[in-house]
Write the structure tokens for this entry.
Amino acid sequence: MKPKMTLKKIALELGLSISTVSKALKNNKDISQENREKVQAFAKFYNYRPNSVALSLKNKKTKTIGVIIPEIVHHYFAKVISGIEKVANSKEYNVIIGVTNESFKKEIINMEMLIDGSIDGFIISLSKETLQKKEYQHLQETINGNIPIVMFDRAVDEIPCDKIIIDDREAGRMAIQKLIDEGRKKILLLTTKDYLNIGRLRTEGYRDALVANNIAYNEDLIVRIGELGDSDEDQRNLEERINKVFELHPDIDGIFGVNEIYAVTALNTARLRGLDVPEQLSVIGFSDGILSKYARPHLTTVSQHGFQMGEIAAETLIKRLEMMDNDEEIPYTTQVVKTELILRDSTKKGIPI
């Protein structure tokens, strides 16, 4: 087996300086043709490859983006990553993904590991625990260290950086207005705890639509759900909470779930109670994923256009990195991706939105 070569070893073997070897490998005309040919032939014989990590440290640029997401199984985050990958690859950037599993501690660990591995910038959706704790020092320190951050989906005003979001309040209002246009008047909302901005804003949209249509807001029809994992017990607990509301309010005729899991669980629970969807009850979810498309009946849902959000996030980060290379300063931006209501069988057809 041939020994692994470095610039230093090549220089020692050929009796040349490291600088001469480096220039010869780049075919620099400042080096004599004899030395260029000798160095290049020697490097080829020993399968020499430049150390990309060393080069990136020297150039202070790794062409690598770190992407931090709360969970890997969520269809929405998979679409966002696909959008990021498309843009990054087209601009010759690599993408490394870290998953926090909604943990504040893991979020910090992931970021520290990627910074140690030399990445140029982050695209991040914050964990639930980070939002609950309201501890953002690790984010600010990263930015202070000249590593830019682009937040998507779950963003906070406290950190000055680029943000890619949707208008969650308007999306919630749009979904509830669709139910009201069908004639639904008693609408159950399945939402998150208020520390998650996306759930709070979608709840505000729910209230906006009710008020605009002179329908009384009833706190009893709001179910705020905390931590929900993938276990059978978690799923049973959610079903039990939905059933309990149905027992207290059997005349519920509409349901809006602020994410796909909530909406599909409500859809299944309603059908087990013998309710006809969409004749007696209409259901709308959020995030147009696999579950929505294969639910029975197929679930009407708000599409967040995750692929587009990923593209915009990557374009925004790479643009900022390139501007930083030129010592240019650009103001931070908040870009809003338009949502869309995808109509399927869990709501009535032919009703104008």
Observations:
- The CA atoms of residues 100 and 107 lie 5 Å apart.
- The chain is about 45% helix and 15% strand.
- The first strand starts at residue 64 and ends at 69.
- The mean pLDDT is 90.
